[in-house]
Amino acid sequence: FLARIQTDSVVEKLKELYPDVHFEIVAMSTTGDKILDTALSKIGEKSLFTKELENALEKNEVDLVVHSLKDLPTVLPEGFTIGSVLKRENPHDAVVLHPKHKGKCLQSLANKSVVGTSSLRRAAQLKKRFPHLEFKDIRGNLNTRLKKLDEKDDFSAIILAAAGLRRMGWENRISQILGPDDCMYAVGQGALAVEVRARDQDILEMVSVLNDSDTVLRCIAERAFLKHLEGGCSVPVAVYTEVKNSQLYLTGAVYSLDGSDSLKETMQTSISSDNQVVDEKVQRVSITALKVSEAPQDAAVKLGVDLGNLLLSKGAKEILTVARQLNDAQ
């Protein structure tokens, strides 16, 4: 459902910009959609939601694929690139309560209330912040998760990305948006990305008009940070970014599985632009953003790498290694 809504929204934008082009939407399902009974962090395949779609791109069966950017690995297979990153929706996580708890928030839920989340990143931060709650895995697409919440008594609340709920038109179910003090978000969360064949100049040019400069720069910094830490679905890494007065701020953090051990730092860089032309052959963390000046893109990459190095110098590697081993052992 959500994938279809997201794809439709991108195609709508392209139709407005290119009224003479005919767009046809091809629906496909992926391994990630099919394996619903296993925690994502356990499956261990980075390209879970992307492999089948990339096969179709490679065979020229489709020309562009719309993804949630947070599902895309920081390194894409040879021959593919992200040709555009659209203006980001609210990137934060949201609390959805069981109907009987209407009006409450995480803080006011009873002791030992069970909260569902399939994300190690959310669980690590929230365990530390709300020690009176218990966190359990919940998988499935948005519809399935909401159903599990509403129709059974297993969960008092579940945590989902606000952007997905919004796109589905289920904003009324959001009881609380978690700010950065409660729960920082995943790399790329809330942004849609269009994946294309890297050598396909015309299509790259076409989708580049969808790029939102601030979102591109924030996501480049976030992805560069994650890549430098070698993080993926199976480790708790979280970020928070903002652009103010031509400065890009990146806060990044790593956590132990129970949140007791963590490292968090913030750095900033100038992204004022000198409007240099962009070299279309240069990918930055698998993003080719024509229409966004080069200097700020390079600054964003450097910011992510620098912040990654700062955390590594303080012991991030050890925290993540233990988290990975514990998660694999469970």
TrEMBL record:
Asked if the Swiss-Prot or TrEMBL record annotates the protein with the keyword Phosphoprotein, the reply is yes
Q: Which GO terms describe its biological process?
A: protoporphyrinogen IX biosynthetic process
Q: Where is the Porphobilinogen deaminase N-terminal domain?
A: 2-204
Pfam family, any one: Porphobil_deam
Q: Catalytic activity annotated for this protein?
A: 4 porphobilinogen + H2O = hydroxymethylbilane + 4 NH4(+)
Enzyme class (EC, first level): transferase
Q: Report the residue ranges that make up the Porphobilinogen deaminase C-terminal domain in this protein.
A: 217-271
Per the record, the pathway is: Porphyrin-containing compound metabolism; protoporphyrin-IX biosynthesis; coproporphyrinogen-III from 5-aminolevulinate: step 2/4
Q: Kindly indicate whether the keyword Cytoplasm belongs to this entry.
A: yes
Extract the GO molecular function terms from the UniProt entry. Answer: hydroxymethylbilane synthase activity
Q: Which NCBIfam families match?
A: hemC (TIGR00212)
This chain's protein is named Porphobilinogen deaminase
Its lineage reads: Eukaryota, Metazoa, Chordata, Craniata, Vertebrata
